[in-house]
Amino acid sequence: MAGFRQRAPAHVNIDMVAHPSITLFVDLSDGDGLVYDTHGRRECGSTVVGLSPGDLRLGGRAAAGRIECLQIRLSPVLAVAVLGASTDLSGTVVSLEDVWGREAGRTEERLRAAASWDERFTIAVDALGRRMNARPSLDREVTAAWRLMLASRGRVRVDSLANEVGWSRKRLWSRFRSQIGLSPKHAARLVRFDHAAHLLAAGDAAAQVAAASGYVDQAHLHREVKAFTGVTPTGLAAAPWLAIDDVAWPTAADPTLGRPVGTMVAGRPEEISPVNGLPVKRAARPIRPAGARRGGQGGATAVP
User: What is d(CA 49, CA 76) in angstroms, rounded to the nearest whole number?
Assistant: First the structure.
């Protein structure tokens, strides 16, 4: 999770980039708050963004007050436990209240009343942890297939996944689709796209990114970027959301997954994003079920 605050009297309008997670935006702003535009439809306030939401923009204006929100990323595996189902959220943007009911409003009120970002992170972790206790988990085979996708950065065939988890291709396709919300092939494409997007944002040439990410050629990369974002690889490389993302979630190698994953560091002052001078507060709260034992005060890796 990460906190964002914009106090300058300016309009925020950012293209969001698809990510292999389900994202919660808890709106803590003054005034009109945040606005999300997707598929010609607008949502205001606290929102849940599913996997592969398509063309999506985040906007708002800090005129008399401030724009402020808490962003929480949940892997599809974790989202099933926390939100109840990830299937219905794929390709959509919905109100947090529609997903959480009255609890969404109560949690938002507690977060608004908190005296610091660290207190907000603690409140959010506790709220998520309580929900995890009451929700069923995914099939172990589905969880294993998702982690294999991450470990391979999306460069894995469905037949290979089925063999690894001990299911038939048909059974894996059916169970994965019903529990994650995307087919295994689409989910692997999303993971591979995410890797390519961050390479493009880091300044790598499109041809180099295509080769490093396992695309057939640069034209293949171009088609995939257009499919997920509606822009070209050049446009994606300049996307402000990726710049914010890199500040909020610096990466570190996770030997268990064999790929970079987000890490979050606590107790640091707010940093200024390269986009619109937006301050970014980084969190260090791994999401655990209620009653789980917490670790030390150092950096913590986001739950895979």
Answer: 12
Please give the biggest Cα pair distance in the chain: 58
By DSSP bridging, strand 271-272 and strand 251-254 are unpaired
Sheet holding 259-264, edge to edge: 251-254, 259-264, 300-301
Task: Write down the residue that tokens 């974002």 correspond to.
Answer: 229
With left for phi above 0 and alpha for psi between -120 and 50, is residue 202 left, alpha or beta? alpha
Nearest CA among 25, 3, 58 for reference residue 270:
3
Backbone dihedral angles phi then psi of residue 63, each to the nearest 5 degrees? -95, -75
Residues 80 and 86: beta-carbon distance below 8 Å = yes
pLDDT beneath 70: ranges in the chain: 7-15, 31-33, 37-43, 53-65, 85-88, 133-136, 243-244, 246, 250-304
- pTM for this prediction: 0.76
* Residue whose structure tokens are 């299911």: 167
Cα radius of gyration rounded to whole Å, the chain? 19
Residue 39: its pLDDT value, please?
A: 63
Give the residue carrying structure tokens 């880091």. Answer: 202
CA 76 to chain centre: 9
DSSP 16: E
Which pLDDT value is given to residue 62? 55
CA distance 279 to 282: 10
d(C-alpha 296, C-alpha 83), whole Å: 27
Please state, in angstroms and rounded to a whole number, the distance separating the CA atoms of residues 192 and 198: 10
Sign, CA torsion 79/85/86/89: negative
pLDDT tens for each residue of 182-199: 999 999 999 999 999 999
**What integer pLDDT is reported at residue 13 of this predicted model?**
66
DSSP state of 92: -
